[in-house]
Amino acid sequence: MNGVRLGGLLTGSVRPLGAKGAPSGIDKQPVSGPVVLTHHGLTGDAQGDLRVHGGPDKALHHYPFDHYAQWAEALGALPLLSRSGAFGENLSTLGLTEADVAVGDVFALGSAIIEVSQGRQPCWKLNARFEVADMARRVQISGRTGWYYRVLQTGQIAPDDALYRIDRRAPEWSIGRIWQIFYLDPLNRDVLAELAELAPLAEGWRRHARRRLDTGTVEDWSRRLSGDAAG
Prior knowledge:
- This protein is 25% helix and 26% strand.
- It is an alpha+beta fold.
């Protein structure tokens, strides 16, 4: 594929968020020069709750700027939507969406190599970020979730770099398709059995698939989406 140039490369420090002042790194700001990418993310980037954010399978968050116009139409012209970073993303582009990108897709970015690991499961911090009580649920229902990468090769990336897809390990498993399974057809046993064995998929999502197979039930999303517990 032709390269897809970055529209934003962003990092953030931990700051208080919302009425309760919860520690969060969701407020990402653009960087002006090269940044080192390690197996745990960009130098200078941080997360407020490492139990559920960050880690090797969530080293980088990518959110398509393609979706911003739809959110502005739904929410109004919020200042937050005037530039990339509203959703806490590290990478922003035009031209790649959940329909185009699959788990196991491998990209070269600068001197680093990264692999798509999972879609984003939105949490209550988006509610506080946007000051919209059900923003996380809206993102989940929309399918406009963005996705995460793991780092296969550390390196240096810069704001004017481009993503080049160099391999596809499971092209049939797009982020959009997996979203449909997880949220619209969540107890399809045949497909869950395939997901449970899908090697490029993050272990957390494979564990969800196995648990659904074992119990015949879907995990409770309310705490993650509403803010009754950290998401």
